[in-house]
Input
Amino acid sequence: MIEKCKHDVKVTSIIWKTPHTNRYKLNTDGSALHNLGKNGGGGGILRNEVGDIIYAFVMPLWEGTNNQAEIQAANYDLNWCVQHGYNNIILEVHSELLIRWLLKTYIPPWKLQIFVQEIQMLVNQCEFFQCIHTYREANNTADLPSK
Output
């Protein structure tokens, strides 16, 4: 019986791609170790069309969930971008929930709604904004510092 089990393997090449000219790619990540634990952090990196680093950050986050850490990191980073005149942003995250909250296809938990509203206000100040999913492996520069 086990011999008849078939396991299909799908190999996908995962690489970070530069944004188009006059666009900036913002990769962010947040992590709450032990999800509701007291150790967490956020990280992010902003790069231009040739991949040069414009800005990078790491921030401690206290008690909260992984979803809260993800949204706080994105909020902090996007706020920095808008304050410093970077308003053509591609936000690249591996949290599909965060993307759905920003696209308003899912309603966030009430504790996180304020962060979503803050991000949406920042998005309204951008000339161009796009939020897209990336695999964790392509988001390593933001993922590793958030731990």
